[in-house]
Amino acid sequence: MFVIIKNIPQQLSKRQLEELLKTTVADTFWSGNGKVVDVEMIQAESRMGMIIEYHCVALIEPEAVAKRVIRILNGRSYFDVRFRVAEYVVRNWHNDRREDGRYKHMAREKRGGDRRRHLRIYSRRF
Questions:
Q1: What is this structure's pTM?
Q2: Which helix (H) or strand (E) holds 20?
Q3: I want to staple 85 with a disulfide (CB 3.0 to 4.6 A). Which of 41, 43, 73, 126 is the partner?
Q4: Do 37 and 65 touch, CB atoms closer than 8 A?
Q5: What band does 34 get if pLDDT is binned at 50, 70 and 90?
Q6: Are the CB atoms for 21 and 39 separated by under 8 Å?
Q7: What is the separation, in whole angstroms, between the first and last Cα of the chain?
């Protein structure tokens, strides 16, 4: 299962985050043996090129361990910043609710203002 950690501190490195996830996975004794398969750091930039947000997407297996990691880390503070941890869902047209007949009117709705933030997303390398 993919897990996303939102708004992580800038000074937190990929290695530190991997260690935090691995120790959290190791503490999930009752959920079985789990492992952190992959960790990817992501940065969001504004149109002006200023980095404004850092996020992390991690692949944790099995699903029961990933759900327990979400419960443990969600709301936990690190470097005086609270983590927001959730399941990362990959969206495509197969799982888009608006394609179903019940929500088609919502897809055609044209709003007056655009709420998107127009950010550029890059993978952060260390």
A1: 0.71
A2: helix 14-26
A3: 73
A4: no
A5: confident
A6: yes
A7: 24
